[in-house]
Amino acid sequence: MRRFSWFNATSLTLGFAFLYLPMIILVVYSFNESKLVTVWAGFSTKWYGELFQNEAFLDAAWVTVKVAVLSSTFATVLGTMAALVLVRAGRFLGRTLFSGMIYAPLVMPEVITGLSLLLLFIGIGLDRGVLTIVLAHTTFSMCYVSVVVSSRLVSFDRSLEEAAMDLGCSTLQAFRLVTLPIIAPAVISGWLLAFTLSLDDLVIASFTAGPSATTLPMKIWSSVRLGVSPEINALSTLMILVVAIGVITASLVSKQAAIRQEREERAAERSEA
Fold first, then answer.
1. pLDDT, average across residues 223-242
2. Cα(240)–Cα(37) distance, integer angstroms
3. For the purposes of burial, counting CB atoms within 10 Å of the CB of 253, is it exposed (0-12), middle (13-18) or buried (19 or more)?
């Protein structure tokens, strides 16, 4: 029986083409000489120069990066703490409610999340700006971090922590010196996932941003409504490049960490033998 038929190959090819062909076309037309995005007039990089001279896009990009770094860092810390509670705290009063509150933003429509946060900020009298966007992005992205870190903690061998504490480490030292380095690939993956979600968010940022803070997706959306310009293609190409570099780097770091952990486990087995 053939496991890989022509039907499977065709379906796979069409699926990948549907996903990545528009991106390839966007990248190609970002080097188009013509101002018309649908007419090829020759190779040129002038739109990248125009992009780096556009103060509105640069300001929006700076706000977006700042919000993404802050929110992903806060989300990683809070999500890791939530994962530790879910995996290691055992049964406690309110565990079901706590678990539901952690996972609810994963399935909650972004419009509902954005509107509820907007009403919250208005109710407490907090002016909308960079701070409110950071708080909003931290709220929904920490749930993704919690899921990623929880999946790693479930398979974690706690005897390693117990051995460290038997050798004189405190609970905090055992976590810092033993647990955290082992789960570091999951923590890094969670941070990158939260960073990407914040970088890409439009709906929630539209509700929680004020006149003094405009993110890059909001700026792109407002510009596209007036017509797609070659600068948008150049900007999108740079964003694809940044995300691709981040994903590749995370994959390499995770792979190296897994290899190092496997070598340490083999060395430990040999020493015991």
1. 81
2. 18
3. middle
Average of pLDDT values for 93-98?
80
CA angle in degrees (0–180, nearest 5) for 113-98-86: 120
Nearest to 144 by CA among 80, 90, 84: 80
Assess contact for 230 and 38: CB atoms under 8 A.
Answer: no
Asked whether residue 70 carries a pLDDT value surpassing 90, the answer given is yes
H/E segment holding residue 70: helix 55-88
Contact (CB, 8 A) for 190 and 100 = no
pTM for the whole thing? 0.78
What pLDDT is recorded for position 273? 62
According to CATH, the superfamily of the domain at 55-228 is: MetI-like (1.10.3720.10)
Compute the average pLDDT of residues 187-214: 87
Half-sphere exposure of 232 (CA within 13 A, CB side): 18
Output the CA–CA distances (angstroms, integers) from residue 139 to 62, 77, 103, 177, 217, in the order listed.
21, 12, 11, 28, 19
Tell me, letter by letter, the H, E, C secondary structure of 11-30: HHHHHHHHHHHHHHHHHHHC
Q: Is 46:37 a contact under the CB 8 Å cutoff?
A: no
